[in-house]
Structures are given as structure tokens and as C-alpha cells.
Amino acid sequence: MSELTIYDTSGNEISPHGDGVKQNQRIGDFATTSVELAVEPQGQKIIGCFDVKESATQRSEQYWGEYIFDDTSTPILEFKNAVNNQIGEWEYILDTENTRSRLFGYLDHASPDPPGEALDRRTLESLAERDQSVKIGVQRPKDAIGLFLEYFQEYSVGIVGSNQTGDASGLDIIITLGSDRSGINPLGGTRQQWDSEKRQIKSNWKSQIISSISSDFNKLKKEYDMTTEDIRRDVPELSTTDQIRRQFSRSNSSSLVDELKPSPKQTGLLILIILLIILAVPPLLSYFGGLEWYLNLLREFISLIQSLP
């Protein structure tokens, strides 16, 4: 049976027994290091802090809830409902004016999507699988909850407030609020391994994609009797650079020849210009006394043409 226990910031029990005898050191550590929400799937345990006040005019107090859950598909939602029910029994008001309460408010069925690209999330998972404490930063409470809900069933995950006062430990993934960049940003010692791990995963993905394409290529050949040219024709993206270059070269050469070929209109204009020159040259040469020389030159040219085979 699931059970909710409420503690103060020192880890002293407030309810359900309310005698303050029971203490929880883990909650005391979380309070010291500003961990505001955490889940430990192996122990089926959720721990989170929230602020309540007796009336709208009073100052709020910070409490911690530890929820031990049975096998259930919605432990996070059950934790939230259990806390709300306890606050209602006390006739307290949940303070919604701070980051902790905003985190608490996102714990419902309309869960936000995790931030970052698929490659970044796979990098995070890969490092967490090595039993390392992966430290990352996100911009908003909504982003933190998105990652929290994405991984809480496989890894111990904690969300740390922007006013972190200590170094949280003992968790697979530690998400810190207040990053100045969107997405998933590695922090601390995680930075040293992040880029190399990301490159390795990207290389593995590329190899898998190439292998898949090669397998499909061979399948089209064997099962559908397609040739390499058939496949490249039907899938233009598979054309090689050399093929594209040759096609471009043939296309340009053909275009160049076509451009050099004169049109009928251009041919007629050229003949007209030649006739005008032939008709205009004799009068000009006669005026300058060179007509006899021109006629002799013309006779020799005609004789040369007639002597050709």
C-alpha cells in the first residue's frame, strides 16, 4: 500500500504520526543541497518539497513529502494527489509563487515534452547507464519536469533549484534549473565526457543508417530485380557526385553548341551584310584609285575556287 509521509526541512516527521520522532536523513541532505524533487525507482520512492501557508496573508513554510508507492503506472500523479489531499485536510493553501510549486504543478497527465534533440538525450542516457552522476542544466521548470518524467522509471533523477547551496550526489541524473541556454547543457565534470560521447553516438547512428541503406539496396536488387541504375533513377538522392557532374557537363556542352548555331534570321542578316560590303567596296576603291587592284584580286580568288577538287 502506498504511503505519504510529511517532513520539515530538517527531516523531522510532521505527519502522519506528527510526533517528530521519526527522522529522514535523506531529506535533510536534499534540503541542504537544494534538491527540490527526486525519484528513486529501485526503492519505489518519490521525494519532493512544496510550500504551504495557512492563509493568503501568512508567510509560507517549506515541507517535504516522501511517497512510497506500490506497483502503479502513475506514481508521480499519485504523489501529487496525495500531497494535495494532505494540504486540503490541513486546510492549508499551496504557495504557487515560487519555483518549487511550479515544479509541483507540472506533475500531471499533461506532461511536458523533454527538451533537447534526440542526440542530446541519447548522450545523457549513455552516460547515466555507466553508473555516473550526470549533471545537466535546463532553462525552465517545465523543461526539468519533461526530463524528470522521461527518465524516472529507469534512473534516479533529481531536480536542483537555481539557488543551489551544495553538491547533490547519489543520483544518476541531476537536473539544475536556471541555464541561460535552451536544450540540455552539460555541467561540471559531465562537460568533459559529453562531447566525445556525443560524437561516438553520432558515428554509431551514421553506421547504422548506412548499413540499413545498404541492406535495402541489396533487397531491391535481389527481390525486385532492379539494377543499380534503376535504383538511382527512382531514388535521385543516391546519385553520386560524378554522375551529377557528368550530367551537368553534358547538359552545358549541348547548351553551348545550341547557342553557337545561328538561327535562320541570323543567317539571312549575315548574307545581307556580305552583299552590302561587295557592292560598296568597288565605288570606294574607284574613288581612291584601287579598283584595278581589287578586280585582279577578285579574278585570282575565283580562279582559286575553280581549281579546288
Summarize the model shown.
By secondary structure, the protein is of the alpha+beta class. The chain has ten helices and ten strands. A hairpin with a 7-residue loop joins strand 4 and strand 5 (61-68).
On the 0 to 100 scale, the average pLDDT is 80
Query: Helix content range of the residues, please?
Result: 40-55%
Structural class: alpha+beta
Q: Flag low-confidence runs.
A: 253-257
From the alpha carbons, calculate the radius of gyration and give it in angstroms. 41 Å
Number of continuous helical runs: 10
The backbone outline, from C-alpha atoms, is elongated
The N- to C-terminal Cα distance equals 115 Å
Total beta-strand segments: 10
Q: Return the string of H and E elements.
A: EEHEEEHEHHEHEEEHHHHH
Largest sheet: 10 strands, mixed
Strand residue percentage: 15-25%
Q: What features would you describe in this structure?
A:
The protein has 309 residues and is an alpha+beta fold. The chain has ten helices and ten strands. Strands 1, 2, 3, 4, 5, 6, 7, 8, 9 and 10 form a ten-stranded mixed sheet that branches. A hairpin with a 7-residue loop joins strand 4 and strand 5. About 2% of the residues have low confidence.
